Amino acid sequence: MHTVLAFRPHDVLMVSRQSGIGIDTVFEALIERIPAPSGKADAPLAALVFDSKYDNYRGSSRTCAFREGRIAPGNEDPVHEGRKPATKC
């Protein structure tokens, strides 16, 4: 199976959400395997919107990749037409 899915057997984590086995190793692996952002937090916000959809219940939602800058709850949402405050970041 590792040949078909192109992963190394020692990279696979033994994890079970139901029993709580290996949850700590998931967070450790995320920190080790995913590089830190290379952008500058004090730079102007730069984001790439690569998906957008509308839901009748939740309204519009976007999937963005933030490259530089910082956004926090209460800031103006730079990728929304109405410039509403950001509620989830």
Task: Briefly characterize the structure.
By secondary structure, the chain is an alpha+beta fold.
Task: Explain what the structure shows.
By secondary structure, the protein is α+β, with helices and mostly antiparallel strands. The protein folds into 2 domains: 32 residues, no CATH class; 53 residues, no CATH class. The chain is 17% helix and 22% strand. Strands 1-2 form a two-stranded antiparallel sheet. Strand 1 and strand 2 form a beta hairpin.
Layout: helices, strands, pairs:
Elements: H1 2-5, H2 23-33, E1 46-55, E2 59-68
Antiparallel strand pairs: 1-2
Mean pLDDT across residues = 79
The total tally of domains equals 2
Total helical elements: 2
Characterize the biggest β-sheet.
2 strands, antiparallel
User: What class, by secondary structure content?
Assistant: alpha+beta
Radius of gyration: 18 Å
Helix content: 10-25%
Q: How do the strands line up in the largest sheet? A: 1-2
Question: How many E strands?
Answer: 2
Query: How much strand content do the residues show?
Result: 15-25%
Q: Given the C-alpha coordinates, what overall shape results?
A: extended
Write down the secondary-structure element order: HHEE
Low-confidence stretches: none
Distance between the termini: 36 Å
